[in-house]
Specification:
This is DUF1985 domain-containing protein. Helix 4 (118-125) packs across helix 6. A hairpin with a 5-residue loop joins strand 3 and strand 4 (70-78). This protein starts with 10 loop residues before the first strand and ends with a helix. 35% of the residues lie in helices and 12% in strands. It has a domain at 11-98 and 144-158 and 178-247. With 265 residues, the protein is α/β, with parallel strands linked by helices. The chain has helices at 25-33, 48-56, 87-94, 118-125, 144-157, 165-179, 186-196, 206-215, 235-240, 261-264; strands spanning 11-12, 17-18, 59-64, 70-78, 81-85, 106-107, 110-111, 202-203, 232-233.
Length: 265
C-alpha cells in the first residue's frame, strides 16, 4: 500500500538561529537586555508530525493558587505525552528570562502598550514622517538597527507570515519598544502567539518545540526530523534581504565592538 499523502496545507516556521558576531552591538545589547540570548541560539531539527499534533491538541488553561491568582498556561498532548507549557516551563526550556514587569498583552486587536497607542508607536518609529495610511514598517523610514529588529521579530520571535495591516501595526509597536529598551515579557507573548496562530496557515516555533518535545521525554528518534534550509540569520541573509545594501560600515569581520561570551551569558 502506498504511503498516505500528506494533505496538511499548513506550513511550519522553524525559527532562526542568530549568528551574533554578524550583528551590530546595539542588537546584541537589546537581546541581552530582554534575556533572549538562549532563545535565538536554538538549533534543532524540526519534527513536522509532532508540531502538527501539538497545535491540533493545543488548549489554553488557567490554574488558580491559594490567593486566587490566575496563571495561564498552554496544554497539549503529543504521542500520548501531556505537555504543560507556562511561563516557568518556557523559561527553563529555552534558558530565557521572564521580565515580569514587561508589557505582555497581545491579541488580535492590539498590544497592551503603557500610555501609548499603536498609532503613536508607528509615528515614532517613522520619526514623525507623514505616512497617511501606512501601518506596516517602511524600509525607507527605518534605520539599519530598526530593520534588523524587525527581521528578528518577523522571522524568529513572533513569526506570522502575515501581511495583515493590524499585524503591521503590532510589528511597528514592538520594534519601537525594543529600540527604546522597554522590557518585553516574551514568554507570555510567546504563549499568546502560539494560541492565536494555532489555526493559521503558518505554525510557529518548529525548532523551539523540538526542545519542548525532548523535555516531555518523547522519543524523537522514532520520527523523521527535518533540517530546514536558511534557518540561520547571519551576514549573508541580512545582505540577501538588502538590509545592508547601503550600509558601508558592515562586513563579516565586523568593525563594531563585540561583547565577550561572558557578557552575552
Amino acid at each position: 500500500m502506498a504511503p498516505k499523502k500528506d494533505t496538511n496545507k499548513r506550513t511550519i516556521g522553524p525559527g532562526k538561529i542568530l549568528n551574533l558576531p554578524d550583528f551590530p552591538q546595539f542588537i546584541i545589547s537589546v537581546l541581552t537586555l530582554q534575556g533572549l540570548l538562549g532563545f535565538i541560539a536554538i538549533d534543532e531539527l524540526v519534527y513536522n508530525e509532532l508540531v502538527y499534533e501539538f497545535y491540533d491538541n493545543l488548549s489554553w488553561e488557567t490554574k488558580v493558587n491559594e490567593e486566587e491568582e490566575e496563571t495561564p498556561f498552554l496544554k497539549s498532548k503529543v504521542k500520548n505525552k501531556t505537555i504543560n507549557l507556562g511561563i516557568k516551563e518556557i523559561c527553563e526550556c529555552f534558558d530565557i528570562v521572564d521580565n515580569r514587569d514587561g508589557f505582555e498583552t497581545y491579541d488580535r486587536h492590539g498590544w497592551g502598550i503603557k500610555g501609548d497607542t499603536l498609532a503613536s508607536c508607528v509615528d515614532r518609529l517613522h520619526n514623525g514622517v507623514e505616512h497617511s495610511g501606512i501601518v506596516r514598517p517602511k524600509r525607507e523610514f527605518l534605520n539599519v538597527n530598526q530593520q534588523i529588529l524587525l527581521k528578528i521579530l518577523k522571522e524568529c520571535l513572533l513569526p506570522t507570515g502575515s501581511n495583515d495591516s493590524i499585524v503591521g501595526m503590532l510589528e511597528c509597536a514592538i520594534v519601537y519598544l525594543l529600540e527604546v529598551e522597554s522590557l518585553v515579557r516574551f514568554p507570555m507573548m510567546m504563549m499568546n502567539h502560539m494560541w492565536i496562530h494555532k489555526g493559521y496557515g503558518q505554525l510557529s516555533y518548529g525548532m523551539a518545540l523540538t526542545k519542548v518535545f525532548r523535555r516531555a521525554k518523547i522519543k524523537l528518534e522514532k520520527y523523521q526530523g527535518r533540517n530546514y534550509e536558511y534557518k540561520k540569520m547571519d551576514a549573508t541573509s541580512l545582505r540577501r534581504s538588502k538590509i545592508f545594501q547601503h550600509f558601508d560600515g558592515f562586513h563579516t569581520e565586523a568593525s563594531y565592538t563585540r561583547i565577550s561570551v561572558e557578557e552575552r551569558n
